[in-house]
Amino acid sequence: MVASAVTGAMVGLGAPTARGSQRPRRVVASAQAVGAAPSKTEGWSPSSWREKKALQMPTYPDESKVKLVEAELSRQPPLVFAGECRELMSTLGDVAMGQAFFLQGGDCAESFDEFSTDHVRDTFRVMLQMALILTYGSAKPVVKVGRMAGQFAKPRSDDFETIDGVSLPSYRGDNINGDAFTSDARVPDPERMLRAYHQCSSTSNILRAFATGGYAAMSRVHQWNLDFVENSEMGSQFKNLANSVDESMQFMKACGVDVDSGPFQGTDFYTSHEGLLLPYEQALTRLDSTTGLWYDCSAHYIWLGERTRQLDGAHIEFLRGINNPLGVKISQKADADEVLRLIDALNPNNIPGRLTMVCRMGAENMYKVMPGVLQAVKREGRHVVWQSDPMHGNTIKAAGYKTRKFDDIRGELRSFFDVHEQEGTYPGGVHLEMTGKNVTECLGGVNETVGEEDLASRYHTHCDPRLNASQSLELAFLIAERLRKQAGKQPLIVRS
């Protein structure tokens, strides 16, 4: 099966940069960053992580089968290419310098059973809508990265799950085991890595087609609204914004700008996932023939979670040697010294765009912990992207379901922006678990549209609760307003 990658170099709707066009030079804030480039990592190989302790890894019953699968994966085409990873790092460098915004979103965990072109399309177009809102509202390009084409493996708090007195190994994602509560389904199966790879290939092809085949054209902006959002308050707000975009396009066309071709006909969309299942990541790591550097070609961007970011652990060891842009999640447990050591380990050359620190703390903890962290990183002159994950610190149980309150998510985002405004640093992005499906997994939103009594009606997630399209658009409008306020602009008023 031939894999195709999601290509392009545009950084956002409304202010795109076409492949091959000259990007403006970025002014770096420290001499250390001038001329910095990825370099070979001493004492590292794609397999050196095996000498370290690896947490959150499955125990396969037959290691010989694992080796066969790894060998098969290593012969498969890459899912992404090194040049695309470098393009993404460059655009994330713009985010690090406060010149763009980083939007990342998608499923908590991708599923074999729910995979379809429609599912990929609907999540993609909600992200297009969000990017348009953020670009139009903030006057900044938006870097769009999906939790797609690889987000299968999930860390778990407990190795076992118990129901009615029966304990079985926890579900760890479709590329490891099955979610059905049976002994057979919960046995880790290495063959699932191959199935995941082929689904990732298909997803990447679908995303590339939508991103570059005309679906993302600015002239289609009115067609991005999902049917179930069309008549909602958020749908109406988006339609008003789309009308404003249409007027702007007509004005540019009248001025002689060709809006029917080139960058106005497509966009860039990159892929990402948590780099949890290291045998899979190693098998898809390739040596770039143009630079002699290693890249993990399973996705453009790889991140680590709170449970696997040990400085002496296998996951940090693997990430430090690949030259993809990287992310690391930090909670209220992190202190300034630990964050600086993580930056030293993963971005020793201080390259803007190489490393994103993904903050997931809860609103009150953000006020307590983040100021000291931001002060230390700023004082040391380190270049990182600061991104808020307002989902993972706000999970609760209600009516027997794992869920999240929209007000708590909004509260953590507010505290994220407050702290950055206080410290004079740039709040560069947001990382969301969301979907284009009409789910009822998170409580609240405009007019409190999802209550506890609604959770059971359309609760489809395989792991953690996701925002639906209407809730996602509401957050995008809120973030756009805050970015405008930070820039000293008037509130975004969209007129019908």
Features:
alpha/beta; TIM Barrel; 3-stranded mixed beta sheet; 12 helices
Molecular structure report:
This protein is an alpha/beta fold and 496 residues long. The chain has one domain: Alpha-Beta Barrel (TIM Barrel). 35% of the residues lie in helices and 13% in strands. The chain is built from twelve helices and 15 strands. The chain has helices spanning 63-74, 82-96, 117-138, 191-212, 227-230, 233-254, 278-283, 314-321, 336-346, 363-379, 406-423, 469-486, and strands at residues 101-106, 142-147, 160-163, 166-169, 270-274, 285-287, 294-296, 301-304, 326-330, 355-359, 385-388, 395-398, 401-405, 429-433, 442-443. Strands 1-2-5-8-9-10-11-14 form an eight-stranded parallel β-barrel, surrounded by five helices. Strands 12-13-15 form a three-stranded mixed sheet. Helix 9 (336-346) crosses helix 10 (363-379) and helix 11 packs parallel to helix 12 (469-486). The radius of gyration is 22 Å and the shape is globular.
